[in-house]
Amino acid sequence: MKSPRPSPPSAATAPRSVSRVVPDPTALKALAHPVRLRMLGMLRVDGPATATQLAARLGLNSGATSYHLRQLAQYGFIEDAPGPSRRDRWWRASHELTSVLETEAEGAELDAGVAFTQAALSLQVGQMQRAVEEYPELPAPWRKASTTSDVIIPLTADQAETLTRRLTDVMLEAMRAAPPLGEPLPPGMAPFTIMLHAFPYPGRLPHRDEDAEP
To answer: Is residue 169 scored above 60 in pLDDT?
Structure first.
């Protein structure tokens, strides 16, 4: 007996497109601010919000929040969103991901990338600390799904780049198969954070100026 043919993917399960932005150095510099990074993350994960709502979540006044929102909007990270009334201005994230070019950047582009990475790392460390604090209270299945691991592997630069790209591709594949962030999720689903940090073990490679010919 022949096996039945698999059903074609439905609209609900078919992989979707994941929108992303690759900011130029000026936009990246504007984003490398801890408050703006947190605000953008909130809009991506929780969906549209007003300046007043974000101010309450961040413990800021609405004037400061509105200023940071205007900066994010100026560089295309957020946009106007439909709201329940015209009295308040609602904002939503314009993209699901921010990508930083990490190829052969130099000068202002490299400086902006480093500044953004520093700001993002500070935010990620805070998120990880809160996750560890909440871990004992999580349901058992979510504790089982969580991990804190580091693996050190001897690789060439080409091998390391290939591995990093493979890991990134796996995460993007999962993201394309999942519902968009910022919308109501099906029962049993929750935003799940995966932080990928890949780098040569500190202190083991010479700096570029040490490689230069005398």
So the answer is: yes
The answer on pLDDT for 134 being more than 60 is: yes
Token look-up 């947190």 returns 38
Structure tokens at 214: 């005398």
- Cα 128 vs. chain centroid, distance in angstroms? 14
Residue 25: C-alpha distances to residues 67, 124, 167 (Å): 20, 21, 26
Bridge partners (DSSP) of residue 79 are 92
Q: Which residues pair with 20 in a beta bridge?
A: 97
DSSP 94-145: S-SEE----SS--HHHHHHHHHHHHHHHHHHHHHHHHHHHHGGGS-HHHHHH
Q: Considering the entire predicted model, what is its pTM?
A: 0.83
